[in-house]
Design a protein that fits this description.
The protein is α/β, with parallel strands linked by helices. Helix content is about 35%, strand content about 25%. It is built from 9 helices and 10 strands. A 6-stranded parallel sheet has the order 3-2-1-4-5-6, sandwiched between helices. It has a 4-stranded antiparallel sheet with strand order 7-8-10-9.
């Protein structure tokens, strides 16, 4: 799988936590911040760190923000800066733009001008957002405790054409299947038969150790 590149505009606490989490999983990160200290702090971890203004279109274009798979605008204090950053990212053709907002009014404005997703930081941490950005096959995840999660996921290519019995998921991958959907929006079927033939459009629900499943999913196609 090709390495993905994520842009982070603004390196406050929220932006730094996203950058560190992405770097941990070997993602390419391009970061922009006015603070030399913030850039220097993360420079050993990220692909490119630039001291500059996130509202400077020429700067964003020069450093390759338009080539990013997604951009997180993580400075939500000054609405004008966030608005300009969103508009610049749209102009540069960024396919997914996520912006931080400090309140509901800011959120509505940023959504109106084209942000694909707006985060209220008191509801979602930077680490959690980074993990959402890295998902490949995981559709949804619900943490039961610090170590175990219920994960809704689509099957990797290596599973397609095999039966559940052949895959032996519990023994080989430590996944306990508890349900299946015939397609993404289909009702959940809690009876998964051993002779079920895995198709690419199936969605599975399973219980697994969070760290094991997530790390496989973030780094490559899971469980090949």
């Amino acid at each position: 799988m090709m390495r993905r590149t994520i842009g982070i505009l603004g390196l406050g606490i929220f932006g730094r936590s996203i950058a560190r989490t992405l770097a941990e999983f070997d993602y390419d990160v391009i970061a922009v911040d006015k603070s030399e200290e913030n850039i220097n702090d993360l420079e050993p971890l990220i692909t490119k760190g630039v001291i500059g203004d996130i509202t400077d279109l020429d700067l964003l274009e020069t450093i390759g923000i338009g080539d990013c798979d997604a951009v997180v605008i993580s400075t939500g204090t000054v609405l004008e800066s966030s608005v300009l950053a969103v508009m610049h990212c749209k102009k540069l053709g960024v396919p997914k733009i996520i912006a931080k907002a400090k309140n509901n009014m800011y959120r509505d404005v940023l959504q109106e001008i084209g942000a694909n997703e707006v985060i209220l930081p008191e509801r979602e941490s930077g680490v959690r957002l980074a993990k959402k950005l890295m998902r490949n096959k995981i559709e949804d995840i619900m943490e039961l405790d610090d170590h175990t999660s219920i994960v809704e996921f689509s099957p990797p290519k290596s599973w397609v054409g095999k039966t559940i019995q052949e895959l032996d998921l519990r023994k080989r991958y430590d996944i306990n299947l508890i349900g299946m959907r015939e397609s993404k929006n289909a009702p959940l079927n809690v009876s998964v038969l051993a002779d079920t033939l895995v198709r690419e459009d199936l969605i599975f629900l399973g219980i697994s150790e969070s760290d094991i499943f997530e790390r496989h999913d973030y780094l490559k196609e899971p469980y090949e």
